[in-house]
């Protein structure tokens, strides 16, 4: 079951891979020179997709991405300028990246077509402060929103107040110039006005000449995972609505639904939220959700659950998430962890490392939100 869960997760990731999705979307892109601006956790993969489709037509390539998310092949391209920046809380590099992005857009030759590639994580990676806003305010806002478990719409609405780039700021810099923007969506409704805090969203009250296309989202990932389950002879039930709300409540709802379904398993997508205390340990919403679920399982239940981020990171950690079963708590205790202490102190990563249940992928080249996949062994299958 663990191997199958990892195969379903892998199938989902491959379906929304930034390189593949961008290359496919640019198959009929018009002629002439192109300037590529790739921003987000999936920026490297998306930029490689653009290079595969457009080749030497790319006259400049700016990639702004998270630390350790740079593709080695991309770094060897002569036109590439790569800036590693901060996530999930911005730092001075975020401001420097924002200044470089703004400068290049303003100075771009009229004969060169601008192409923007935007994925989740952009909000922290690139910034230009609005008049009167301070860097201390920016950092405090991001830290407060993350700790309080704000949903993406709430967090973005506050970010826009401090920014010259968010909420349609890039559209304003283009000043009516034609451009194309491709998005990997990690937000409800796949709205370009929310992805990356609306870097390439429409500016309120104005029209522009930006062609906006969402090339990957959580629905595509779920469809691929369903197809992979079918290849194993498994019938899975997919939740139509996105996962949202409190992580612990989501864990309980998922476990109850997995017990109740007549199918072989469940697949849900979206993002839960967790409210962190001032002092907390290692982990993110996916490992906390996984540990919550593990505590709910009954002895002898043949259930196994994967909770993982499609970007390969969970909170401020390098873990994607975890796969848990009824033995998780016991394995964690045998591994030397006080699991109840870890749970109460939001130190889920330590508990799941002790149990051997963490999932590590490294940077995945995409970011469409989180996946919850649960499987159960039916009596016929056990026999």
Describe this protein's structure.
The chain is of the alpha/beta class and 383 residues long. The chain has two domains: 2-12 and 219-382, glycerate kinase, domain 1; 17-216, 3-Layer(aba) Sandwich (Rossmann fold), CATH 3.40.50. The chain has 16 helices and twelve strands. It has helices spanning 2-15, 18-25, 43-54, 72-75, 92-107, 122-125, 135-148, 152-160, 169-174, 218-231, 247-260, 285-296, 328-334, 339-344, 348-355, 379-382, and strands at 34-39, 58-66, 80-85, 113-118, 179-184, 210-216, 236-238, 265-270, 303-309, 321-324, 358-359, 370-376. The strands form two sheets. It has a six-stranded parallel sheet with strand order 3-2-1-4-5-6, sandwiched between helices. A six-stranded mixed sheet has the order 7-8-12-9-10-11, with helices on both faces. Strand 1 (34-39), helix 3 and strand 2 form a beta-alpha-beta unit. The chain is globular, with a radius of gyration of 21 Å. The two termini are 15 Å apart. Mean pLDDT is 93; it is low at 379-383.
Per CATH, the superfamily of the largest domain is Glycerate kinase, MOFRL-like N-terminal domain
- Strand residue content: 15-25%
Rg for CA atoms? 21 Å
**What is CATH's topology name of the largest domain?**
Rossmann fold
Order of helices and strands: HHEHEHEHEHHHHEEHEHEHEEHHHEEH
Q: Strand order across the biggest sheet?
A: 3-2-1-4-5-6
- Helical content band: 25-40%
**Biggest pleated sheet:** 6 strands, parallel
User: What's the structural domain tally?
Assistant: 2
SSE class:
alpha/beta
Q: So, CATH architecture of the largest domain? A: 3-Layer(aba) Sandwich
Nearest-integer average pLDDT:
93
The N- and C-terminal alpha carbons lie at a distance of 15 Å
Number of helices: 16
* Uncertain segments: 379-383
Number of strands: 12
By CATH reckoning, the class of the largest domain would read: Alpha Beta
Shape: globular
